[in-house]
Amino acid sequence: MSRDRTRLVRTRRTWRGIAGAVTAIVLVGGGFAVANASTDTGTGKSAAGVKRPVDKKATGVGAVVSAANEFLNTLDADQQASTLLDLTQANATAWSNLPCGSTCRPGIQLGSLTDTQLAAAMKVLKLATGTGKNTGYDQITQIIKADDVLNAAQSTSSAGPAPSDTASSTASADPSATATDAPTDVPTGTPPSGGTGGGGLGGYGSGVYFLAFLGTPSATGTWQLHFGGHHLALNLTYKNGKVAGASPFFVGVEPTTWTDDDGTTYSPLATMRDGLLALTGSLSTEQLATAKLSESFSDVLLGPGQDGQFPETKEGIKVSTLSPKQKQLVLKAIHPWIANVDDATAKKLMKTYEHELNQTYVAYSGTTALDTQGDYVRIDGPGVWVEFVCQNGVVYRDQIHYHTVYRDHTRDYGSEFTFS
Fold this sequence. Notes:
Layout: E1 6-7, H1 60-73, H2 77-83, E2 84-85, H3 89-92, E3 108-109, H4 115-128, H5 136-155, E4 210-214, E5 222-229, E6 232-239, E7 242-245, E8 249-253, E9 258-259, E10 265-266, H6 270-281, H7 285-291, E11 317-318, H8 324-338, H9 343-355, E12 361-365, E13 376-380, E14 384-392, E15 400-408
Parallel strand pairs: 1-9, 2-4
Antiparallel strand pairs: 3-4, 4-5, 5-6, 6-7, 6-8, 8-15, 9-10, 11-12, 12-13, 13-14, 14-15
Helix pairs in contact: 1-4, 6-8, 8-9
């Protein structure tokens, strides 16, 4: 099978074959804490019998809050209890890159939703994330599509189930939704099979992604939009109507490129990879020697469970020593990760990282080609932290696949928690 392109021929069908709804999550031991959100069963209304407010004219964060309320209004009491959880450190940090379903992340499983509910959930994500190609909402939906590719490939493989994705760390079908103003570009694919914690062979598939609101969506309070599944973790924290943090953001993909049965080719991390290639390709022999790390890497350092574990000493080449053109390449390389959040917030974050650029470092390990196991690039500033690493394939074992993460030294989870 080609390293550059995997051609997939498969049958499209919706998620309606997925059985079982996600039940309410209860705080037991290290479980997920449920927010106080009493509702009338099946109505989507509050205990007072009033639906959550929806403002079709709202903009910015107000539009995200309105869409979140619109989604909650489509859910029954048990579904709301699975979705609306307390903003605690345990809940916020419960994300993974693994295909481990609900065992490692909170929220409602998208594969359990009706068409209308699914469209409303995807509307929230679309309003909260960036509008660029291969970034933001476009990238998120492509990562979800990739999991259907894995599910289909593994289910037809004579080799049987592949080993789990390396730990450091599935949304939608083709819903014929009726919800007003719902996005139409939600991904399609073969749904997974199995119980609430998995789906497919090894937990791959577009149905095994989870959405949670940690804290109550509001234009005045503090809450987090928490979404993810295999190879994806989106954590957007809101305070008083503004985005206080757009990280951690984990994104990976396998296969790195594929062509769907309708002839569309996807390369969801190409923009990230190409920005780093342009940056490292601009470095001279002397600069490369300075940027080279002595360590080797099989995964990102600051994946799930590694909150606050930034290296004490920055390594690599200091951006202040680079040419003006190279400095612009550093900013261009950073941007695709920051663009996971809405465009206005991304612009503000980029201004901050530009102000800190001279105190930022660029480093790499392995080779700079980003096509071999262990090829690794890092950008580390006073705020921004970006990692990109190549790993051998898990399902497509003759290929590589990518893991990446964006963090911020001071803004992860909206600065809500302290990590030792």
